[in-house]
Amino acid sequence: MSKIAVVYWSGTGNTEAMACAAAEGAKGKGAEVTLLAASEFSADQVGSYDAIAFGCPSMGSEQLEESEFEPMFTACEGSLRGKNIALFGSYGWGDGEWMRSWEERCSEDGANLVCDSVICNGAPDDEAISACHALGAALA
């Protein structure tokens, strides 16, 4: 049984809803899933999981949330080489540039992005929730 962590930061609940859908998708494939807020996860936990889904909304000028998520993710980057990961998050403006930049960082870190990242504008609709289910299943 694979061990999956779904690590997220959510300000309005949109990214949290996406995280829950990703966790359900992985559980549906028989994975053991741990859902964690960014403040509950640290770099020394990366090795404890077979795969990790990271979720963060777009903030400011299309960047990751700066006080909790960005420092946690930056600390984890050195441990991501060869790790199966997936990314998701919501945004309120722009065109998803923050996700493209984040994917590029992960590729440079040597992480293995197992599926297309999932982004949605505002609250996740049925299509975004289904995509998050599929993301979780792909990690498992």
TrEMBL record:
Keyword Transcription regulation: no
Listed Gene3D superfamilies: 3.40.50.360
Highest taxon of source: Bacteria
Domain Flavodoxin-like per the UniProt entry, residue ranges: 4-140
Primary role: Low-potential electron donor to a number of redox enzymes.
Organism: Candidatus Eisenbergiella stercorigallinarum
GO molecular function annotations of the record: electron transfer activity; FMN binding; oxidoreductase activity, acting on NAD(P)H
Cofactor requirements of the protein: FMN
Keyword annotations of the record: Electron transport, Flavoprotein, FMN, Transport
Family annotation (Pfam families): Flavodoxin_1
Family: Belongs to the flavodoxin family.
Protein name: Flavodoxin
